[in-house]
Design goal:
Layout lengths: L1 H21 L13 E6 L20 E5 L9 E7 L3 E9 L19 E7 L6 E7 L5 E9 L2 E2 L14 E7 L12 E9 H4 L12 E10 L6 E4 L14 E5 L1
Parallel strand pairs: 1-3, 1-13
Antiparallel strand pairs: 2-3, 2-12, 3-4, 4-10, 5-6, 5-11, 6-7, 7-8, 9-10, 11-12, 11-13
Length: about 250
């Protein structure tokens, strides 16, 4: 009888742990190979592309590492903060040439210079959010259903008002942000409202909430393709099982 009660207790604890993990609140194993970022809470502020808002002092820079064959030596990094209304993402990288020609939103921005971040708030469902932004200030926000490696992006409906992102770009070391300009780097600052993530679950995050996420960069200096990632992936960027973890403080 004692053993039966003990077995029942172990089953209950195991089930409870599974529920916590599904809700994004249980810590990954101590030997997890995925990077973990603790995201500080902040009041809302205006994004201007420079990352100079005092709130950013609460966040530490996170380095992206090159993928595949060695590309140009362009150090790349990012920061994140969250508020009661949305997520703030600051991305920065050195560069030499502004390789960007697209002048509309919702185009294939990844074929030119771009910063990207992917957010997977709830691992119970194979659906996550992808955001891309170019140095010319154009964006690609999409929801991605991914079933066993079969994935495609869906554009937001009624993308306006409280559902629309706020973004700003700053290019440094050269003149205006124009195609082919010689520069020394560029920065993208993005505010992502939680309203845009509806109806994804585990949103908005609370203290202790965990999301899976990744951050990427593509660059095409001199006709050579180079890419960077926060959590290492091979081949496609769409490998959510290899994403890192955000822990909201």
């Amino acid at each position: 009888m004692v053993q039966q009660h003990r077995l029942a207790w172990l089953v209950l604890v195991s089930a409870f742990g599974s529920v916590l993990w599904a809700n994004g609140r249980q810590a990954p194993p101590a030997d997890s190979p995925f990077p973990v970022l603790r995201v500080a809470r902040s009041d809302d502020f205006t994004v201007d592309g420079t990352g100079r808002a005092p709130a950013w002092s609460k966040a530490e820079w996170q380095a992206l590492t090159p993928r595949g064959a060695p590309g140009p030596a362009h150090p790349t990094r990012f920061k994140m903060l969250y508020s009661s209304t949305g997520l703030y993402v600051l991305m920065d990288g050195e560069d030499r040439t502004l390789t960007a020609t697209f002048k509309e939103d919702f185009l294939d921005l990844w074929n030119e210079d771009v910063f990207e971040f992917f957010l997977w708030p709830d691992q119970r469902y194979p659906v996550y959010f992808e955001y891309e932004v170019s140095p010319l200030g154009f964006e690609l926000p999409i929801l991605v259903p991914n079933f066993g490696g079969q994935f495609y992006g869906w554009r937001p409906w009624h993308y306006e008002g409280a559902r629309k992102t706020r973004k700003a770009i700053a290019v440094r070391g050269g003149g205006p942000a124009t195609t082919g300009a010689s520069i020394t780097g560029w920065t993208a600052e993005v505010f992502l409202p939680y309203d845009l993530l509806k109806p994804l679950q585990n949103v908005p995050p609370q203290s202790g909430t965990r999301w899976r996420a990744n951050v990427y960069r593509m660059d095409y200096d001199g006709g050579r393709t180079a890419s960077w990632n926060w959590a290492p992936v091979r081949g496609t960027f769409h490998q959510p099982d290899k994403f890192g973890t955000l822990v909201f403080e």
